[in-house]
Specification:
Layout: H1 10-21, H2 67-77, H3 84-97, H4 104-117, H5 121-134, H6 139-148, H7 158-178, H8 187-211, H9 215-228, H10 234-246, H11 250-261, H12 268-284
Helix pairs in contact: 1-2, 1-4, 2-3, 3-4, 4-5, 6-7, 6-8, 7-8, 8-9, 8-10, 9-10, 10-11, 10-12, 11-12
Length: about 290
């Protein structure tokens, strides 16, 4: 169950860098809470002041930074995504020691991805819930959890979990559509990251609809998944082929299976055989 393209990717790192570089309120522009951007229901009356007097309602001062907290977060942030054990080793104690840190949501988010990389799904779900409890629009967590759920068929209440995954991926897509570029990223990096997260979200939705027996919806989503992916997931092509067969579109199914078979992967031989079988069936179908 390795997609290996988005978790721990460039957008997640850019968001973490932005959190380290800027004041907490700036995170509202990048997938966090939008409360600070909502218009006031009524215009605010400026405080009455006399010459030489201080305003009655001065803006609150930003809390002073804790050098030890900053040092601990930098060590965590600098850890490579290829070291999930170290990310967990540094991240979990950081969140315990600094539960109110402005960095804690990003720590939870990255720890979630580290547990995914270790295939420890119970812990991945746990820390994903913690991250989303702080920022319900964290696209790195939404896309990951929404993609994993339809693969993890042994979960209790699987039907309810599929609904949860559907909601997560739709929320991620809505957020991605309006997301602004973080300061640490170039335009090219941001465009690439958005496409990859968009691909994974559509892949997750396609798999949800596959599990729910909705072949037309599954095909629609999986087509968008492979179109947005720099390196399409062969599994998406395979599932697309299965769903196209459900729709009696054998020629299209053969093409999807063929694209799966063209890439070295665990399904390659199965996709090759499925493509050949679908081509034979396509010949007998009316034009």
């Amino acid at each position: 169950m390795k997609r290996g393209m988005v978790p721990g990717g460039i957008l997640a790192m850019a968001l973490a860098a932005l959190a380290m570089m800027s004041a907490p309120a700036s995170r509202a522009q990048m997938g966090g809470s939008q409360k600070s951007q909502q218009p006031q229901q009524q215009p605010q009356t400026p405080p009455t002041t006399q010459p030489g007097q201080q305003p009655q309602n001065p803006p609150p001062a930003e809390p002073p930074k804790d050098p030890e907290e900053e040092k601990a977060y930098k060590a965590f942030y600098d850890t490579s995504v290829a070291e999930p054990d170290k990310i967990i080793e540094l991240g979990v104690p950081f969140a315990q020691k600094y539960p109110n840190s402005r960095y804690v949501e990003q720590v939870y988010s990255r720890v979630t991805q580290a547990y995914y990389n270790k295939q420890n799904l119970p812990k991945m779900y746990e820390y994903g819930d913690r991250a989303l409890a702080i920022d319900a629009n964290d696209v790195t967590v939404l896309t990951l959890i929404g993609w994993v759920i339809p693969h993890d068929t042994n979960q209790p209440n699987f039907d309810n979990q599929l609904k949860k995954a559907e909601g997560y991926e739709k929320r991620a897509l809505d957020k991605l559509a309006t997301m602004e570029k973080p300061g640490p990223m170039t335009d090219e990096q941001f465009a690439k990251a958005k496409k990859e997260y968009t691909s994974q979200a559509h892949s997750g939705l396609g798999l949800v609809y596959f599990r729910e027996g909705k072949p037309a919806d599954a095909v629609t989503e999986l087509k968008q998944a492979v179109e947005n992916a720099a390196t399409p997931d062969p599994t998406d092509y395979y599932v697309m082929g299965l769903q196209l067969q459900k729709l009696n579109k054998e020629a299209d199914a053969a093409d999807a299976f063929g694209k799966c078979a063209a890439v070295a992967n665990a399904l390659q031989s199965r996709c090759k055989q499925s493509s050949e079988d679908a081509k034979k069936k396509a010949v007998s179908q009316p034009k």
